[in-house]
Amino acid sequence: MTLARRCSRTACSRPATCTLTYVYADQTAVLGPLSTYAEPHAYDLCEEHAERLSAPRGWEVLRLAREHVPPGPSDDDLLALANAVREAARPTPAPRQVPAEKGTREVGRRGHLRVLTTD
Fold it and tell me: What is the distance between the alpha carbons of residues 94 and 75, in angstroms, rounded to a whole number?
């Protein structure tokens, strides 16, 4: 279970909706949709802090188009869960019987291991 990521701003407990990264070589701050993973050199921001974002003098703020998606399970998550339940409910095939070699017989079994004895 993953917890929702929170805004990186101090004392802000709202959920993050955007990710801010800096391109120092181009003097650009890039504000885009929330990244898939929390990156160590990126900042997750809530909607309010993303709208109020300003960059240092001489820097450009590049705001990438993003659609506002409320946090919660997506259709992909629900389909993956349904597929996992279906897979778990399938009957397991009977184990394949391997004939014992001549002069040996099976006296016990634990999982996929067999105990054989020679006659």
Answer: 34
